Amino acid sequence: MKNLVETFCRRFEQNVSQAFAGLFSPDAIYIDSLYGAYEGREAIRAFHERCHKEAEAYHFQPVTIVSDNGDNLSFEWTFSYVSRMPQSRGKRVTLKGASFMTLRKGEIVSYREYSDSVILLLGGNVPAEKIVKFYRRKYPGLFA
After folding, report:
1. Distance between CA atoms of residues 86 and 55, nearest Å
2. Which terminal residue of the chain has fewer beta carbons within 10 Å of its beta carbon, N or C?
3. HSE of 110 in the Cβ direction (CA atoms, 13 Å)?
């Protein structure tokens, strides 16, 4: 499955959203640590397209395959990009994380990742009040 991880990472880096979405089943669920959940291949394609509008020069490097039993795959990674957002244009942001995939007949049916989202927000020069707003939305019960 190392080939699938490499293919996944390379396709994410490339600005070809249809090819990236083609790795997923039509009913797949993709959960991004910053942007949340996307259901279905078309939503995943649109998410990928958005990523390439907001940043460029992606580098998605798998570090370690943690688990691979044929139907479930997990790996650690390092991820970076150069921001296109107005508050951080031209700045390279880097973070580490882990991903978990569930596979069916060679397609990804479930993808979820975990990373320290605050690194992306701070690295992107997002103002503190917007970071708090983000985390209040993401974890509504946490800020009672």
Report:
1. 11
2. C
3. 7
Per-residue pLDDT for 52 more than 90? Answer: yes
In a domain, 139, yes or no: no
Q: Is 38 exposed, middle or buried (0-12, 13-18, 19+ CB in 10 A)?
A: buried
- Closest among 65, 64, 28 to 44, alpha carbons compared: 28
- In the chain, the number of structural domains is 1
Handedness of CA 120, 122, 126, 131 (dihedral sign): positive
DSSP assigned state of 15 = S
Three-class SS state of 123 = helix
Q: Which two tokens stand for residue 50?
A: 């958005």
CATH number at residue 6: 3.10.450.50
DSSP state of 125: T
**Is the per-residue pLDDT at 111 higher than 90?**
yes
In a domain, 121, yes or no: no
